[in-house]
């Protein structure tokens, strides 16, 4: 009997073929961009109804508001703990590796213009806090403003829970919507290998492989810092919960590879939520922690942002003393909240923070040239960090123990190998 090629293998083949086509036939690779855009648009059409329905279902379906408060409190504590580690590792690694030292600057006029435009986005905490409250939830959904959607969904979910039996119908509808969107996700994922092939071919065809050589040290530094962060957090979580989090990562490897290939947390979100439920994490916790972490626990984006700021300073020989780096940490800890899990969003935060600390905005243009690759690295960290946070909160709530996880993990491996 012939063994069918799995989705992760198909995506890997698409990734390799896309890189080859982009390198050998750059003009053709550039023309494949619409196919990649079409795939990402299909992914984006899933996210709003999925997150809204699962969040309302998670809040209203919990019923126990003391438990809901505990879930939120524990999730936030872990989010901030992981974010602090990400920022610290990013700054520490950049101070040791110093990838910005000795790099030849060659920003194009177009990229410099883009960087200057991005730098106009300043971080105003008062405006930021007020902006979370939507004036029109339909408009917020149309713009895919996840913070505003989450804010409204939380209020709506609490209201549904408080209207008693009448709210059960709404919860059932949200559950049906969520299940339908998971099914739609399955259909869309059949196009993932084609979408990945087109996006990689376009990226390599447009920017070329040669331009990555001078900045290879930065890419390697961010990749190593990300790997170190995942290992450190996995070790801490394993000690804290008694569960082997490296097994959690192994069970999520195809989801993480999809996130890496598409550079979009959105692409991996539905599959990650379903996989965590398969590993024994209760649906009420998955549907609450995962969507919340989608906006508040983007560890890869925070790590990249701290690395990007220090890289720009090194490019121009600007010394940043430790107290200023700590201030950068605090700034990024706030400004990275709410970064959408879509390609390229992190560069806005880097540009805004660079401007806030009087760093040359032209340095952001250098990052723009390789942002696609860096985005792929930070996206896999975002997804992995959110999945680990969900499992930690489940264990903290004593709703997932070591025996249950090991049993579900073995069943998952057995089902996968059969």
Question: Helices and strands in order, then pairings?
Answer:
Layout: H1 7-24, H2 26-30, H3 33-62, H4 65-97, H5 109-118, H6 125-131, H7 137-143, H8 146-162, H9 166-189, H10 192-207, H11 216-241, H12 245-251, H13 253-262, H14 265-278, H15 283-296, H16 299-315, H17 322-335, H18 346-356, H19 362-369, H20 371-396, H21 402-417
Helix pairs in contact: 1-10, 1-13, 3-8, 3-9, 3-10, 3-14, 3-15, 4-11, 4-15, 4-16, 4-17, 4-20, 5-19, 8-9, 11-16, 11-20, 13-14, 13-20, 14-15, 14-20, 15-20, 16-17, 16-18, 16-20
Question: How would you describe what is shown here?
Answer:
Helix 11 (216-241) packs antiparallel against helix 16, helix 15 (283-296) runs antiparallel to helix 20 and helix 16 (299-315) crosses helix 18. The relative contact order is 0.18. The chain has a single domain (7-417), classed as Orthogonal Bundle (Proton glutamate symport protein), CATH 1.10.3860. The protein has 21 helices and no strands. It is globular and about 65 Å long. It starts with 6 loop residues before the first helix and ends with a helix. The longest helix has 33 residues, at 65-97. By secondary structure, the protein is mainly α. It has helices at residues 7-24, 26-30, 33-62, 65-97, 109-118, 125-131, 137-143, 146-162, 166-189, 192-207, 216-241, 245-251, 253-262, 265-278, 283-296, 299-315, 322-335, 346-356, 362-369, 371-396, 402-417. Mean pLDDT is 78; it is low at 104-123 and 340-344. Its main location: membrane. It comes from Megasphaera elsdenii CAG:570. This is Proton/sodium-glutamate symport protein GltT. The chain crosses the membrane at residues 7-25, 45-63, 75-97, 146-165, 186-213, 219-243, 301-318, 339-357. It is a multi-pass membrane protein.
């Amino acid at each position: 009997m012939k063994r069918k090629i799995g989705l992760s293998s198909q995506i890997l083949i698409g990734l390799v073929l896309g890189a080859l086509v982009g390198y050998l036939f750059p003009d053709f690779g550039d023309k494949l961009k619409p196919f990649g855009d079409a795939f990402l648009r299909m992914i984006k059409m899933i996210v709003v109804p999925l997150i809204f329905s699962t969040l309302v279902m998670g809040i209203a379906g919990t019923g126990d508001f003391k438990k809901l408060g505990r879930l939120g409190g524990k999730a936030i504590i872990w989010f901030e703990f992981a974010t602090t580690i990400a920022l610290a590792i990013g700054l520490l690694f950049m101070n040791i590796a110093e990838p910005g030292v000795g790099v030849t600057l060659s920003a194009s006029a177009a990229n410099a213009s883009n960087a200057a435009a991005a730098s106009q986005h300043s971080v105003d905490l008062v405006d930021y806090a007020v902006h979370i409250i939507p004036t029109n939830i339909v408009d917020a959904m149309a713009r895919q403003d996840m913070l505003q959607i989450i804010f409204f969904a939380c209020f709506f979910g609490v209201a549904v829970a408080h209207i008693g039996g009448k709210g059960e119908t709404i919860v059932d509808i949200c559950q049906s919507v969520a299940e339908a969107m998971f099914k739609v996700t399955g259909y869309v994922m059949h196009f993932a290998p084609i979408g990945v092939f087109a996006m990689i071919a376009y990226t390599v065809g447009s920017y070329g492989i040669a331009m990555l050589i001078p900045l290879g040290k930065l890419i390697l530094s961010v990749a190593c810092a990300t790997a170190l962060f995942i290992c450190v957090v996995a070790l801490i979580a394993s000690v804290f919960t008694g569960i082997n989090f490296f097994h959690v990562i192994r069970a999520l490897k195809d989801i993480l590879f999809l996130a890496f290939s598409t550079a979009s947390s959105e692409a991996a979100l539905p599959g990650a939520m379903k996989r965590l439920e398969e590993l024994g994490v209760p649906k009420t916790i998955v549907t609450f922690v995962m969507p919340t972490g989608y906006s508040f626990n983007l560890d890869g984006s925070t790590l990249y942002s701290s690395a990007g700021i220090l890289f720009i300073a090194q490019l121009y020989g600007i010394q940043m003393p430790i107290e200023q780096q700590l201030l950068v940490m605090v700034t990024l800890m706030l400004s990275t909240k709410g970064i959408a899990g879509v390609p390229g969003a992190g560069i806005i935060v880097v540009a805004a923070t660079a401007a806030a600390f009087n760093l040359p905005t032209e340095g952001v243009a250098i990052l723009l040239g390789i942002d696609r690759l860096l985005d792929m690295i930070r996206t896999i960290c975002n997804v992995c960090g959110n999945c680990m946070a969900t499992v930690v909160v489940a264990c903290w709530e004593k709703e997932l123990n070591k025996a249950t996880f090991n049993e579900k993990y073995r069943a998952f491996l057995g089902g996968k190998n059969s």
